[in-house]
Structures
1.
Amino acid sequence: MIRFEQVVKIYAGGQTAVDDLTFEAPTGQITVLVGPSGCGKTTSLRMINRMIEPTSGHISIDDEDVQSVNAARLRRGIGYVIQNAGLFPNKRVVDNVATVPILLGAPRSQARTRAREVLELVGLPGDFADRWPSQLSGGQQQRVGVARALAADPPVMLMDEPFSAVDPVVREQLQDEFLRLQRELGKTIVFVTHDIDEALKLGDQIAVMRVGGKLAQLADPAYLLAHPIDDFVAGFVGRDRGYRALTFAQTPALPLAAEPTVPLGTTPQEARAATRDGWLLVADHGRPVGWVEPEHITAAIEPAMLHRGGTVARATGPLRAALDAALSSPSRRGVITDDDGILLGTVRAHQVLEAIEATDRPEVDEADIAPAGPTSRADR
Amino acid sequence: MIAQVWRWLVDGAHWQGGTGIAQRLLEHLEYSGMSVLIAAIIALPIGAFIGHAGRAKWIIAVANAFRAIPSLGLLFVVAMWFVSRLQGDAAYLVPTIIVLVILAMPPLLAGAYSGVSEVDPAARDAAYGMGMTHRQVLTRVELPCALPLIFSGLRSAALQVIATATIAASISVGGLGRYLIDGLANSDYTEMAGGAVLVAALALVVDGVLAALQRLVVPGGLRTARSARRRRRASAVTQASPTG
């Protein structure tokens, strides 16, 4: 657990970067600091590993004040990932990743073995280790940056906009892999971003900061979407809050209708015989692959003639995915599968909406009704 | 004229003995090598420190201003001061070395300074953030990354020193400058031209050796980074040029 207690940072010019910041980043969870530029989120992050020293207040990791430890030694025990990866161009990828183990005194060969393991973990197996950083794409460099931070297996990781310098497709991929890694590793992570969607996607709890270095609200994503504490937070969290909140609502048991399916290669006659209305679902070994209109086919069904517009939702996934499956399906019947992607049945939009109606929203915290100041939802 | 110079150069008799070309080449290399070495020992740590700390940048400016001093004039001033204080050859050799050291320092300082100060700030930030001490950041990240610029400073210093070491002959020290000074005195232009060719050839050879050393010493990642940039520039140029 990382604890901020009344932390203040005033720069030499008299500018207040962080103003009386108090919060906790719980062990094994991702705490995202988010806010517009100039809100002090990066300054706050960098005070944890003493890259910046606070003007007053205390920061502790597992109840040990960071000020009581030698700065270099403190940092070797904390993973650190930054925006442009900051790889050392003079070292091969494997030696970049081996940096902290070597600083901690590990023999070079052992550190390199460990480095290769971690590179595999972040999806850079084999010969990537022997490349130079300049031979990698931005996304690959960022993966190396994460591997380098993980190499010494630190319990705490600090990540400063690690995915913001890569293109949106790669960013999404890196975020998904990051969440998968975190499920395995369970690090205590403080993550800085200016992107509220990234914060909502990655954060177990989110600290929204406002210009001047004040904490505006600390809450989990669903609560933040349901109950932004003021106009600033509401504006920052953005539009479509109700719809986006469905991302965090678990799908209850939906009334699934059995859906007849045909395999690929079905003839037009067979397809027309199997259809109940204009659309027919095609499945490959139980996995839905797309919709066809039997009226309009003249040959055996092949992948190229499938309608791909409909999304597929897992029965155990978020309500947003179930609703989207129904809304995007050309037959208006949303395809629901189990976790292995095997078809369970279909559901219509109004049935998903009924399920949504019956779902509890995050209840507003008493303290947030008449707020006296920055509020904490960390205990939720 | 070219044929005459060529004949002068390949005449075996010119290469032998205490005043032969071989001896002069060795002397020339000796003065130049010693000067660059001393200059490097002084300038590289200072340049690297200024680049690392980001302080005392005025030293670079002052060193650059030294480039404006004419070497020959400086040589006479320094020699006059030393001639009454030192005995024998040293009275002329020491002033020569001092002048050449002063000449070699600005490019070495600038190379080390800009090499270290231009290290990617993200790499430097990551280095500190992972728990490197100042010394570790300097020796493990900044200096290796600065090597290409340190080498270009070194090569530029070596070229200037080899070219300028000829002036040593004007205060009766040896080296290839002898052929220029003596040739001028005797109106032997063949000898002068031969001496000039030798200086140029020596400069080229030394530069070649340093370039080879650079390839050996500079980490491959820095080479590929530069050649990748060059390739990108080249392809940008070809794309920009109108077709047909």
2.
Amino acid sequence: MIYREAGDFKTGYRDDGQTFPIRLDRWGYYAALAVAFGIIPFVINDYWANAVFVPFLIYAIAALGLNILTGYAGQVSLGTGGFMAVGAYAVYKLMTAFPEISVVIHILLAGGITAVVGMLFGLPSLRIKGFYLAVATLAAQFFLVWLFNKVPWFYNYSASGQINAPERTVLGWAVTGPATSAAGKYLVCLIFALLLAWVARNLTRGTLGRKWMAIRDMDIAAEIIGVNPLTAKLSAFAVSSFFIGVAGALLFAVYLGAAEVGEAFGINKSFLVLFMIIIGGLGSIFGSFAGAAFMVLLPVLLKNVLVGSFGWPTDLAAHFELMIVGALIVFFLIVEPHGLARLWALAKEKLRLWPFPH
Amino acid sequence: MDQLIYSAEIFLNGLMTGVMYALVALGFVLIYKASGVFNYAQGVLALFAALTLVGIQQGQVPFRHLINAIFGTHLESFGWTLPSVLAILLTAGVMVLLAVLIEKLVLQHLVGQEPIILFMATIGLAYFLEGLGDVMWGADIKTLDVGLPQGISESIESVTAAWFGYGFFIDRLDIWATAIAALLVAALVAFSQYTKQGRAMRAVADDHQAALSVGISLRFIWVMVWSIAGFVALVAGIMWGTKSGVQFSLSLIALKALPVLMLGGFTSIPGAIVGGLIIGVGEKLFEFWIGPLIGGATENWFAYVLALIFLVFRPQGLFGERIIERV
């Protein structure tokens, strides 16, 4: 009843092209921002930060990145874990080599380095497509993990082969290392996630995003109408890898604090992020967040219900989780290949007409 | 000279490993040709088959951990040990049942979707089956013994010792696996060339609609192909399970089979075999010659990088059908 565009007059192109054309959506967005910045940082504790909010925000960034590549540009990638590892090791090397520079700059630079690596592994996409490309990106996954395992320079010759995030502060607040408060971790990830989501939204509705979508829908046809596949595909790989690199850097520096490459950035991570964008919705910014929230919350929920309430052994619960995740993926692909984002859009369509049927 | 003899031994071992890779790759090719589905779950199918075989053979109660957790019972096993042949037959039956279920519950609903959607559905299927296998039979490492000979082959060792002054170490299991794989491939080729169902399968692979219009049942063919793939997975599961125990890492051989497919082409049975041999030999020799220089453990990625470089020059693989695109 109150969810209407009636009475919300657009008087210019800016109004017409805005992200939330309906007033209630805009208010909802501002309200969500107000809660995220005004309330959650003051009430958050370590459990909620570590189990829910921080991984959600970090994976949302990774899912945004993969969604740009897979959802918008149509290039399926299974190398996400490897690219996250590049971000993590890049930020580690930068943090230890230049301790006097702000960690925010390091994280952005790590994204940049990942973008270069991503473009390198994106080169075959000019020749091969579809499954062949998906399998080719696995080469990136295995090669990068092996590289960070075997070359001691990357982990500063530490005996354990692990990398540990040194303590760094932003504006006097600790954001990495053991002294970090829950609110500090949360805010850093929140700001990065919001800024990158804003960038992604504006890239995807501009020239570049339209080129990506043209390539996705049919690359030969796109080439004929004047889209250069070289720049379109490589820019998709670069932007996507930048996002994924930042996510990897945050995952290591802010969330985990210490990481071992095979464990933290293995192939399961690639699949996890892929599942997020399938469940959330391919080619949707909102879907990246929804999918990340879903895949982060599901294990927490299942663990609480199965282990906490039913008293099952944890390994049995973990196997059940695999089954449920797998079944859900198949279920979503059958029932709603466009994911949670499409369900949300459909619900909003219905709501605009409610309570009148036509 | 010593290096060359070692290389020859590694070459032989690589060939045998390559046959095992080819065996897994074969399952992929069969399904891909008949239904256009790139079945990521093939490796997990092999794991599931091996788990089921061990479970049936040793008479374990399926879902016993689950039942014990819910009802507080202490079920362990039925207390029998079945002969290998019977257990293998029963497991083959389970794999056929699984094929029917997959077709009914998953594939049937995804007809006409884009290939990449189907691919992702099989990733979901792989997760589901992995969880199901663990819930059904437990996640502990099991030993599988169906009576295949194991251990060093003395005759080869003595022959090579007489020729080169150095006895080659060749596992008898590998020789058997090679023989069985060769037999399986021959049987599959004969099946697809000389039987009615085999011709129908090739017709479906060629063109779904044309096959439908001459009265071939797509659903029957799909169930059949998935059953055959399940059977190939069972054979692969027996080989790998006997070699290195039945455990989660068994499903990772699927990841080894992927570059084999890229190299050989997704649509070619000879391609799968040649690709498997190239990768098996290539990764062993690379590890032997180059591995020590760059830190070892190159087997994880060598196959992929080789396939990647290869693909840049020949996108359809060695024997794949030429990819023709029209707007």
